[in-house]
Each structure stands twice: as structure tokens, then as C-alpha cells.
């Protein structure tokens, strides 16, 4: 067990570190799933409730389209595409790291300190130990809507567009995950005001389910520069659906989501580490 | 104040090994923000731990005690890397706990009395299996340890029970096994016997004693219970108000600060407070009276003889001073220790 | 001359005292969560803006929806956000939690009316949420979007009783849902589902007047419509005369039915408890 005392040097150690991080995540998450399986009925009910809320959510949009043909010049098919993509990305992000929200609760009841005594990366430990399959409700619904949207929209399929769909979902999930980690880290500084982050994780997810050009400028700025959520669904959609935005944006933005995702990962790691360091300096 | 005696030759490891815990000037200052009025905030710096120098060597079993709020958990948190010190240095097993938290975590075991480290809804056996992977224990070691713990802590019938259904005593035995599966060199136990019944306490103590003797595992035991210390630890570190108030063998401490004992006597009938030379009546409730005496001035037998001569008694008991009493005495009565007559 | 016993005003005061006390205590208790309240206001406001902009885009296409303008809808959205917490749309489980832990036994033996006691508690909580989570998002939305202050004095006068009725209906429904904890092992899902249904049918996901006519009629007949949608529409000045009376009548009718059902269910639960020797 030579890695005991050796600091993390070299690419070999890096790869080793990654495998064990993923291993640890899978191990702890599966233990949590098994634990939750003890409460099967409760899980089933919550899954059902999750499906219901998501159905109702989309019902809301459908209702709007009984009154109008277009929303900000976008048809129901196109909005459904946005909705499905946003829902998938945020659903996956929630599934993977959403549990990081529990940080404030865990700090308050002292169980975060217990987490820190284990030889596991703190963030992995936190997200994996509270992993829940409940979030599959959102993912299922969003996947269905997205699949239908892919079919009904008259997409001019090229290899580029095919790749773009996959990149959109991948990068979008990463951006959403990073948003979760960053907003949860607020707990390290403002333990009681942590929920402010919900405005971006849940609010943000809601916002980018719609064509953002219907929003006033300040909100668009918020969703582009504060938390770059427009890169999750809206901008890639312009390319995939082959439509133009009334906002007259440069084309390259439509393919920038991987870069944005990478930047968000850096920011999220930085913020988390900073927060953790602060927590260990000031206690709770 | 620091004694280097290692105590009873029958139960101790004679050669103290290299230092596994070394702190120098360890300090932790918290900034408390309290609200004074609607919007103003009042800031106050609290020294939870102040300038502690502590050296624990391999194979030692140290009792770490102190009243609530004395800084015990804060110290443990700094030793395990959960909290960063405000000042001073700390090295555990040669590592810096904060910077090398994960590396250190692989080599230590921690048991929290109040919080469980086990997977609450899964059978106990599952926790052991999970920990095997988390700590990367090789199959042979895992098997060996698991078998030994199941045997010594009588865990066999508990293995298939979800942890949440275990009694406190059963769970604590499971926690101990879990903390030791990976053969840690150093174990921190935070109030492990609190709330346990007598039988479980005994088993836990026996187990810890064997562990220390046979494996040479260093143990730092935080507790309120003086009898834990008596049964297990040769060395006792008392922390009060963030500083080390005493660091040495239990016996020395007893004889220096445990000067007063209390006799609780049940008289046949109620009556006025007893008047016995060398004692103070501390309390009277019905026919029961509490008399306190200084062991250096008189003895239990003298007091009892005097009481019996004065009144008919039904029953009596002798109370040992508790740790809080002694620590209090340690501080405001340091004068006693220095000016009073020497221990008998 | 023998004393005639306590006067009626005193009797009333004494009878009402415990309920007032629990109301005040609930208000105070929630007033201590300052950080969370602030965070919640920010989130509510954000949601308000998102929905407001989306619905406004619909108005941009079609002009009025029913008898409501874009300004009406925007006002509706922010008012509805304000109603969220005070109508317990996120599913409060206080009663069912106490059933789970068994503390409910102590509550049932208290010499106060169980349902009224919890109603008083709910009203205290709602009062705080109305002030702290209701007004701020509403005010911020109106100010930022430059909207006129809604409602005439008459509309406000009609709005307030409708709101109180609405909050109470929401309580009555939640009360029933929580009581299912006496029979169901895990009531969390039930309470969550009720909250979710409330979100849709009370107009939080989309204002009811956007819905197609026939569906709208059905939704408005449910008790949920009277929780948020109807009071806010009154505030917008859209419901007068016969319609206003119909709304009040509907609210009162549902209130009596639901509170009555609650008391009946409670009686059942009490009897079961006694049989089980609890």
C-alpha cells in the first residue's frame, strides 16, 4: 500500500486516483441504494410523486400552447426539445451530485465531521452516501419528452448534429452538476442561507427549459455569466434545430458548451476546496 | 506535572515506542458570532484549545478526560484532520492531519459514541464488507480480523441484523470491530461506553485491553467515566478550559486531588445533622445524610466508627470523588495539594 | 349574593387562549429562521420572474387570455409565489411526524380540540409566511417590472377573507393527508403528492384561466382552486358580484366538508388507538 504516504505525483497516480474516486462513489452509492431498498414502498411512492410532478410540469407548458401557437416564436415541438434537454441534463446532474445539497444539514448535525474521518474524498463521500434513485423520475420524463422532440422536430440530421446532441447532453450534465456543487458549497460560508442556491439549481433548470429570449436582459445575463446555463440547452438547440435566435448571437457560442463545462468544473473544484478549507479552519 | 511512570508491570507494555501523536502549542480559536439586537453582530474569540503539548507513544493507552466544553472533541478533530489548528503544530503517525487527511485516515480508527459509522439500514455484515473495500483491506487480514472480532465481541448472532435494530451495547461492539478491521496503528475512541449496560462495558474494556496488549495498538480514549480509565489506562490526560490540567498516572492524581470522600449514611430515624470530627455534613434528606471528609485528616473507618457510636444506622455507602470534583479541586484547590499533608 | 361565575367575555377569552398561544408560538418559531427565510424569498422571486416572463410571452402573441391582461398575469404569478409557503404547498408533515414517533398520544390527551389546535398552529405559521415569504417576492416583482399596485380597496377587502379561507382549506386537506399516518406506514409520499396536486390545481404551475374551458371548470370545482387561484383573481379585480359570492360559497362549502372529514377521520383514529391500547 505504497500510496499511504506518497504524495500525489505523476500521471499514473492521477489515473489511480480517478479510478479509486469512481470506485468509491460506486461503492458508497450502491450501499445507499441497498439501504433505501429496505424502504421499497416509500421509494415507490416518491418515484410516483416525482413522475406526477414532472408530468404536471409539462402539462403547464402544454396548456400554454392551447392558447398560442408559438412562445417567443418557438413552436411547442421546439420548446419540448429545450424542455427535454434541460430536464435530462439537470436530472442527470441531480442524480450524480444532487445530494451535495445535504451539506448544510450534515454540517449542522455533526455528521459531516464523521464523513471526514474516512479515507474517502469528502465530496465523493457526501454525494455518494446520499445517492438516491428517486431522481430517475425526472430523467425518465425528460428522456421521453426529448426523444419525442427529436422525432417531431424536422431536424436536418448530419453527423455534426448527431454529435452535437451527445455533446449537449454530456456537457450540459456537467454544467448542471457543477452548478449543484457550487451552490451547495455556499453552506461552508453561509450555513443558514444555503437555499439561495436553489434559485439556480431548480430555478435555473426551469428557466432554460424555455427559450431564453423571452426573458429580460438581466435574467439572460444571469444565466450566461453568473451561471452559464444557457449553454446547457438553448445555445446547442439553435444549432441542432437549425434556427436563429432573435438575440443575434455569434455562431461559435452554439458549440462552446464543452469549454464552458470544463471551466465550470474548475470553478466548482476551486469553490469546494476553498469552502472545505474554510470549514476546517473555522469549525462549525 | 508530567509523569513518565508506566504503571503496573503486569498489564503494560514496557517499552514506549516512537511518538505517534505529537503536538506542540496546539491551539484552536473559534470566532463566535452572536446577534446583539436586530442587525448588529457581536464577535467573540473563544479559545477552545490553548497551547497543548501532547506526546503519545506507540502502544500507550491514554485516557483523555475533561468536563463538557473543555476542548476534548476539538482536540480529537485536530488530531484526525477534521479541523485545522489555529496555531501550533500537530503530527500524527508522522503525518500532518489536515494536509494528509486521507492518508492518515487509512491508518487510524475512530469510534464516536454518539454517531454511528455503520450503515444504518443494512445488516452488520454488510458494513464490514463495505469497510473492507473502503479501507482496501486484503482478504487475509480482513478474514483474520473479522473472525477474531466476531469471536471476542460475540458478534455472530448480530451479523444479519440491520444496525438500526441493534441495542446500543450491540451496536457499540459492532462499531469497535468496524473501526479496527483495517489494523489501524492508532485508535480514537470518543465516549465509547456512554449509555452501555455493565456487561457491555466490561466486554468493551476487556476487548480494548487485549487489543492494546496483543497488537500494541495505541489507544486514545475520551471518556467521562473514571472507571474506564481505572480499568484500562495507565496514563491520564485531563483537559480543562482548553489546556492540559494534568498528564500522568491515575494513582498519582487520585492521591493528590481525590482527597475528599463522601459517606452516605441512612440512619434508623431522622435526626439532626451528625457531628463527627473531621467531617462536614453536606446534605440531609430525611434519614439520609451525606458527610464529606478529608482522607488525609481522617479515615473512613474512623468516621464510620464515630457515626455508629452516635446513632443507630441502617445502611451506609462510600462515594469516591468524581472526575469533575477532582478537576475542580485541581484548579481552585491547587493550594490544597501543595499545602496539605502528604498523601498517605 | 352568590357569584354568577365568570362573565362571558372572560369565558371566551379563556377558551380561546390556548389556541392564540399556539398560534403566536408558531409565528415566533418560524420567525427565528431568518437565513432560510431570506434564501427562500430569493428563490421565490427568481421563480416568479421566470414564470412571469414565460407567460408574458404568451400574452405577447395573443393579447388577453380570458379577461386577464399581461399585467394581470404577471401580478398573479408573483402573488401565487407569495402564497406558496403560507398554504403549505411543500407538504408539511408535522402531524404525521408526531404520529410516527408516538408523541401524538400526548397531543390527543390534551384538553384542547386537536384539529383546532393544529389549525391555530397552521394559522400562526401562515401569518408569518404571509408577511415574510408572501410580501417580499410580490413587492420585488412589482417594483422591478414596474407594475401598478394591484387591486382597489374594495378588491383588497374581498381578497382578505378569501385568503384566510384558502389557507384554511389547504390546512384541512393537509390535515387529512397527515392523518393517514395512523394507517399508512410511510405517509411522506402521500403528503408530497397532495402538495404536488395542489401546485397544479391551485394555479402555481399555470394560472387556471390559461386552461381550456372544460378542464378549467373541473379544476375550479375542486377545493384546491379556492386555495390560491380564486383569492388572487379576486385581488386582480376580476371576480365581482355573483362570481365573488360563488367563490366564497365554494370555499366555505369545501371547508366544512374537509374539516368535517378531518374530524371524522380523527375520531376513527382515536378509537383505533384506544383499541390498540396506545
Question: Could you explain the architecture of this structure?
Answer:
The complex is a heterotrimer of chains A (284), B (344) and C (278). Chain A is mostly helical and 284 residues long. In chain A, 70% of the residues lie in helices and 0% in strands. Chain A has 12 helices and no strands. The longest helix of chain A is centred in the middle third of the chain and has 31 residues, at 159-189. Chain B is α/β, with parallel strands linked by helices and 344 residues long. Chain B has 2 domains: 11-254, P-loop containing nucleotide triphosphate hydrolases (Rossmann fold, 3-Layer(aba) Sandwich); 260-320, Alpha-Beta Plaits, CATH 3.30.70. A 6-stranded mixed sheet of chain B has the order 5-6-7-3-8-9, sandwiched between helices. In chain B, strands 11-12-10-13 form a 4-stranded antiparallel sheet, covered by helices on one side. Chain B is globular, with a radius of gyration of 23 Å. Residues 1-13 and 334-344 of chain B have low confidence and may be disordered. With 278 residues, chain C is mostly helical. Chain C has helices at residues 8-31, 34-62, 70-86, 94-101, 104-109, 114-144, 153-179, 188-201, 213-221, 229-235, 241-276. Chains in contact: A-B, A-C.
Keywords:
heterotrimer; A: 284 residues; mainly alpha; 12 helices; globular; disordered N terminus; C: 278 residues; 11 helices
Global Rg of chain A: 20 Å
Rg over CA atoms of chain C: 20 Å
Judged by helices, strands and strand pairing, the structural class of chain A is: mainly alpha
Uncertain residue ranges of chain A: 1-8
Strand content of chain C: under 5%
Q: Which oligomerization state do the chains in this entry correspond to?
A: heterotrimer
- Biggest chain contact: A-C, 40 and 40 residues
Pattern of helices and strands of chain C: HHHHHHHHHHH
Number of domains of chain A: 1
Helix % of chain A is: over 70%
Average pLDDT of chain A, rounded to a whole number, is 90
The outline of chain A comes out as: globular
Distance between the termini of chain A: 34 Å
* Structure annotation, total helices of chain C: 11
The biggest beta sheet of chain A is recorded as: none
How would a textbook summarize the main sheet of chain C? none
Helix content of chain C: over 70%
Count the beta strands of chain C: 0
Amino acid at each position: 500500500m505504497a500510496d499511504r504516504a506518497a504524495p500525489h505525483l505523476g500521471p499514473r497516480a492521477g489515473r489511480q486516483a480517478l479510478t479509486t474516486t469512481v470506485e468509491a462513489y460506486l461503492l458508497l452509492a450502491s450501499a445507499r441504494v441497498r439501504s433505501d431498498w429496505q424502504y421499497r414502498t416509500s421509494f415507490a411512492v416518491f418515484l410516483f410523486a416525482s413522475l406526477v410532478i414532472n408530468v404536471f410540469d409539462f402539462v403547464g407548458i402544454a396548456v400554454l400552447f392551447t392558447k398560442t401557437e408559438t412562445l417567443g416564436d418557438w413552436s411547442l415541438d421546439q420548446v419540448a426539445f429545450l424542455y427535454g434537454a434541460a430536464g435530462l441534463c439537470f436530472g442527470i446532474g441531480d442524480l450524480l451530485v444532487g445530494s451535495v445539497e445535504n451539506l448544510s444539514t450534515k454540517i449542522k448535525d455533526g455528521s459531516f465531521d464523521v464523513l471526514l474521518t474516512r479515507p474517502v474524498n469528502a465530496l465523493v463521500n457526501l454525494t455518494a452516501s446520499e445517492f438516491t434513485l428517486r431522481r430517475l423520475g425526472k430523467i425518465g420524463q425528460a428522456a421521453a419528452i426529448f426523444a419525442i422532440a427529436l422525432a417531431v422536430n424536422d431536424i436536418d440530421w448530419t453527423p455534426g448534429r448527431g454529435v452535437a446532441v451527445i455533446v449537449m447532453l454530456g456537457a450540459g450534465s456537467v454544467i448542471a452538476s457543477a452548478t449543484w456543487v457550487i451552490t451547495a458549497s455556499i453552506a461552508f460560508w453561509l450555513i443558514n442561507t444555503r437555499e439561495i442556491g436553489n434559485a439556480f439549481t431548480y430555478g435555473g433548470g426551469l428557466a432554460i427549459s424555455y427559450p431564453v429570449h423571452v426573458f429580460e436582459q438581466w435574467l439572460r445575463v444571469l444565466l450566461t455569466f453568473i451561471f452559464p446555463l444557457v449553454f446547457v440547452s438553448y445555445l446547442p438547440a439553435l444549432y441542432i434545430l437549425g434556427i436563429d435566435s432573435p438575440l443575434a448571437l455569434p455562431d461559435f457560442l452554439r458549440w462552446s458548451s464543452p469549454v464552458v463545462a470544463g471551466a465550470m468544473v474548475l470553478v466548482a473544484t476551486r469553490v469546494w476546496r476553498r469552502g472545505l478549507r474554510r470549514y476546517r479552519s473555522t469549525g462549525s | 506535572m508530567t509523569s513518565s511512570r508506566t504503571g503496573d508491570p503486569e498489564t503494560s507494555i514496557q517499552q514506549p515506542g516512537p511518538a505517534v501523536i505529537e503536538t506542540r502549542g496546539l491551539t484552536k480559536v473559534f470566532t463566535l458570532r452572536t446577534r446583539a439586537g436586530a442587525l448588529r453582530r457581536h464577535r467573540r474569540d473563544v479559545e477552545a484549545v490553548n497551547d497543548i503539548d501532547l506526546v503519545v507513544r506507540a502502544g500507550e493507552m491514554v485516557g483523555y478526560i475533561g468536563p463538557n466544553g473543555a476542548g476534548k472533541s476539538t482536540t480529537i478533530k485536530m488530531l484526525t484532520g477534521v479541523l485545522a489548528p489555529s496555531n501550533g503544530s500537530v503530527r500524527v503517525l508522522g503525518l500532518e492531519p489536515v494536509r494528509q487527511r486521507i492518508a492518515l485516515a487509512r491508518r487510524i480508527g475512530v469510534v464516536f459514541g454518539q454517531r454511528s459509522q455503520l450503515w444504518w439500514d443494512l445488516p452488520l455484515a454488510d458494513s464490514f464488507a463495505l469497510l473492507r473495500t473502503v479501507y482496501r483491506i486484503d482478504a487475509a487480514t480482513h478474514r483474520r480480523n473479522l473472525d477474531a472480532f466476531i469471536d471476542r465481541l460475540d458478534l455472530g448472532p448480530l451479523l444479519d441484523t440491520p444496525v438500526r435494530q441493534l441495542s446500543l451495547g450491540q451496536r457499540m461492539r459492532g462499531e469497535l470491530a468496524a473501526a479496527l478491521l483495517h489494523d489501524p496503528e492508532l485508535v480514537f475512541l470518543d465516549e465509547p461506553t456512554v449509555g452501555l449496560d455493565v456487561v457491555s462495558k466490561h466486554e468493551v474494556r476487556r476487548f480494548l485491553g487485549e487489543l492494546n496488549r496483543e497488537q500494541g495498538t495505541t489507544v486514545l480514549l475520551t471518556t467521562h467515566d473514571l472507571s474506564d480509565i481505572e480499568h484500562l489506562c495507565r496514563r491520564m490526560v485531563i483537559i480543562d478550559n482548553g489546556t492540559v490540567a494534568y498528564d500522568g498516572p491515575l494513582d498519582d492524581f487520585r492521591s493528590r486531588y481525590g482527597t475528599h470522600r463522601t459517606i452516605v449514611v441512612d440512619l434508623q430515624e431522622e435526626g439532626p445533622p451528625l457531628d463527627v470530627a473531621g467531617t462536614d455534613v453536606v446534605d440531609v434528606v430525611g434519614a439520609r445524610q451525606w458527610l464529606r471528609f478529608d482522607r488525609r485528616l481522617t479515615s473512613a473507618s474512623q468516621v464510620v466508627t464515630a457515626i455508629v457510636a452516635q446513632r443507630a444506622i441502617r445502611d451506609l455507602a462510600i462515594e469516591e470523588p468524581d472526575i469533575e470534583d477532582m478537576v475542580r479541586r485541581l484548579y481552585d484547590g491547587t493550594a490544597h495539594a501543595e499545602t496539605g499533608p502528604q498523601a498517605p | 349574593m352568590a357569584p354568577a361565575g365568570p362573565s362571558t367575555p372572560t369565558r371566551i377569552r379563556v377558551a380561546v387562549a390556548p389556541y392564540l398561544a399556539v398560534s403566536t408560538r408558531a409565528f415566533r418559531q418560524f420567525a427565528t429562521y431568518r437565513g432560510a427565510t431570506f434564501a427562500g424569498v430569493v428563490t421565490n422571486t427568481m421563480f416568479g420572474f421566470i414564470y412571469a416572463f414565460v407567460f408574458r410571452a404568451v400574452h405577447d402573441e395573443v393579447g388577453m387570455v380570458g379577461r386577464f391582461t399581461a399585467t394581470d398575469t404577471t401580478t398573479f404569478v408573483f402573488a401565487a409565489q407569495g402564497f406558496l409557503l403560507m398554504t403549505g404547498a411543500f407538504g408539511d408533515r408535522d402531524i404525521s411526524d408526531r404520529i410516527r414517533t408516538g408523541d401524538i398520544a400526548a397531543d390527543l390527551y390534551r384538553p384542547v380540540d386537536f384539529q383546532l389546535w393544529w389549525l391555530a398552529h397552521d394559522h400562526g405559521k401562515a401569518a408569518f409566511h404571509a408577511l415574510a415569504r408572501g410580501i417580499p417576492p410580490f413587492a420585488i416583482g412589482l417594483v422591478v417590472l414596474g407594475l401598478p399596485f394591484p387591486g382597489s380597496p374594495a378588491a383588497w377587502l374581498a381578497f382578505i377573507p378569501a385568503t384566510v379561507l384558502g389557507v384554511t382549506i389547504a390546512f384541512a386537506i393537509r390535515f387529512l393527508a397527515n392523518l393517514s399516518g395512523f394507517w399508512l406506514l410511510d405517509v411522506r409520499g402521500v403528503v408530497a403528492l397532495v402538495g404536488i396536486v395542489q401546485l397544479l390545481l391551485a394555479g402555481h404551475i399555470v394560472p387556471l384561466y390559461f386552461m381550456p374551458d372544460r378542464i378549467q371548470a373541473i379544476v375550479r370545482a375542486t377545493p384546491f382552486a379556492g386555495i390560491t387561484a380564486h383569492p388572487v383573481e379576486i385581488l386582480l379585480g376580476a371576480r365581482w358580484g355573483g362570481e365573488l359570492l360563488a367563490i366564497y360559497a365554494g370555499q366555505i362549502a369545501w371547508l366544512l366538508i374537509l374539516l368535517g372529514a378531518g374530524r371524522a377521520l380523527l375520531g376513527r383514529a382515536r378509537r383505533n388507538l384506544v383499541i390498540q391500547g396506545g
